[in-house]
Design a protein that fits this description.
Blueprint lengths: L5 H10 L11 E10 L6 H19 L2 E10 L2 E11 L1 E14 L2 E12 L11 E5 L3 E4 L7 H17 L4 E6 L7 E2 L8 H6 L3 E2 L4 E13 L5 E12 L5 E11 L5 H6 L3 H9 L2 H13 L4 E3 L1 E3 L2 E4 L12 E5 L7 E7 L4 E5 L13 E5 L4
Parallel strand pairs: 6-8, 6-11, 7-11, 9-10
Antiparallel strand pairs: 1-5, 2-3, 4-5, 11-12, 12-13, 14-20, 15-16, 16-19, 17-18, 17-20, 18-19
């Protein structure tokens, strides 16, 4: 199998649409990938290796960045490493055909390549959300209507997310419920018996939200009502993406004239909540624009991941390892379930033990 430096793995991870800010436009390129089959039975795997080779070449067509790292001990170079990373990412591609010459396969692709620092997004993955109950803290000095505002905002935002095709609200936890591992025994748990279990799966993404509503004085603006919101998406791999929001409105005085002339409750609520739904939806859009990722589990000589068709994986997807200690390796899906997939290294010489616990990221190569 053709070996590439780790940094090209990182390039391929980013090839498939990370939505970062920039202005350059995507361009179409034509690339060729090669691979050699050990025998006739190895031809399907060789075809996938050639496709991976072509995808990497497409990313390289967007330019490369180089970084050197040299360690010198007593005047002697003990480590000299040059890292190369693609500057482009593949949003989509067309397979222009393949040709075999003996045991060598050549695949031509026409790929749409965008800069790494670009706003475009490729095919979106499907996000399975488990929403934790919002943590709402309201100061006793705040108006009585503020206590319900956090709950209303949260419920309205969930209704908007539920209408997105790329999102499934799998569980919406009630107050007092906590998600638990799918393998934990809760048969003797009072909380589980009275409130029910919400068991997390490896492919689930948790949504956690905190509201802090309080009154403040300062900056010559008199008494203000301030709402601070923290939103987190917690992936099954442990990756956390966070956004925050802070809004403030001036509260009317307590006298009859200032109360009559001051802003009314609906207007104050609208000003306080401005941007909340947009920030939450933007965070979810960012998550769906990143590749499906999971930890590999080795059991009985087999490799599996706790993600499957629910997260948008297809039978033709390729998995690439994330391991800074070595070159990247590619794996193919040999069995795809709703919530899991069984993997096999494309290189038959690789031992399955080296993949245990690694993070893999998937690229849809089934077209």
């Amino acid at each position: 199998m053709k070996r590439w430096p780790l940094t090209l793995l990182l390039a391929l991870i980013y090839l498939i649409g990370l939505p970062l800010a920039a202005s350059a436009q995507a361009v179409w390129v034509e690339v060729i990938g090669h691979a050699v089959a050990a025998n006739s039975k190895d031809k399907p795997a060789a075809r996938r290796r050639a496709l991976a080779d072509a995808l990497i070449a497409a990313g390289m067509a967007g330019g490369v960045s180089m970084k050197g790292h040299t360690v010198v001990d007593k005047g002697r170079v003990v480590r000299d490493l040059t890292m190369m990373r693609a500057a482009g990412r593949v949003l989509r591609y067309d397979n222009l055909g393949e040709a075999w010459g003996g045991n060598t396969v050549q695949i031509r692709l026409r790929a749409l390549v965008a800069p790494l620092e670009g706003p475009a997004c490729g095919a979106r993955r499907h996000l399975v959300l488990v929403t934790l109950p919002p943590d709402i803290r309201v100061s006793p000095n705040a108006p009585a209507w503020a206590a319900q505002m956090g709950t209303d905002l949260f419920n309205d935002a969930l209704a908007r997310l539920d209408r997105k095709r790329s999102v499934t609200l799998d569980n919406v936890l009630a107050q007092g419920q906590k998600p638990i591992s799918s393998s934990k025994n809760t048969s003797m748990s009072y909380a589980s018996l009275t409130r029910g279990d919400v068991r997390l799966k490896g492919g689930d993404t948790q949504l956690a939200t905190w509201f802090d509503i309080d009154t403040e004085y300062g900056n010559g603006k008199g008494r203000q009502l301030v709402m601070r919101v923290q939103i987190q998406l917690i992936e099954g791999t442990g990756q956390v993406t966070e956004r925050t929001l802070s809004n403030a409105v001036k509260l009317p005085g307590s006298g009859p004239i200032s109360s009559a002339l001051g802003a009314k409750r609906p207007k104050l609520q609208a000003q306080l909540s401005k941007g909340f739904s947009e920030i939450l939806e933007g965070l979810v859009d960012l998550a769906t624009c990143t590749p499906v990722a999971a930890h590999v589990v080795r059991s009985g000589g087999k490799l599996s991941v706790p993600v499957g068709s629910r997260q948008g994986l297809t039978r033709g997807a390729l998995a690439f390892t994330e391991n800074p200690a070595s070159d990247f390796e590619a794996l193919e899906i040999i069995k795809l379930g709703r919530d899991n997939a069984v993997l096999r290294p494309l290189d038959p010489a690789m031992k399955t033990s080296v993949f245990d616990g690694r993070i893999v990221r998937f690229v849809d190569a089934g077209r």
